[in-house]
Hints:
Layout: E1 21-22, E2 28-29, E3 38-47, H1 50-57, H2 66-79, H3 81-84, E4 95-103, E5 108-117, H4 124-142, E6 150-160, E7 167-168
Amino acid sequence: SSSLSNCTPMYSSSRPPTTCRKDSCSNWAATTVKAMRGTTAARGRVFMHRETLELLRDGRAPKGDVLTTAHLAGVLAAKRTAEIIPLAHSLPLDGVDLAFSLDPDSASVGIEARVRTRGRTGVEMEALTAVTVAALTVYDMLKAVDRGMVMGEFAVWEKRGGRSGVFRRRA
């Protein structure tokens, strides 16, 4: 098993990824690259016992591949945001990227979603929905071994496009 100290989310703003891939740190990124008008990045985190993080890292979770399942759930949720958030607009999405990073120092899984559209509105709700549903899926798949997990730190970190222009959260 590889060292987690080098694990970082796989999204790179300098060269967007073009395929679904998993690196040695169990980070996932999947994309469909198209011309962008609006992009939003949202993040969240799931805190757990260290032993639970080790199970996840080593691929020994009782319900199977946690990050693959959470990735799929996040993408599907982003696409269905208008069905679950009242008054949210149905938007054509050009891409939904999810990246996961395992942090042994805080015994947590960091989740980042980047959503892209060529539509005339922002995709904050889609990005936040992707992150929160991915976090809920991590919880669901690990609750048999750790009922004390805490999900949190959900926030929009960056937004480009739409009427309000550019927003970047200060760290």
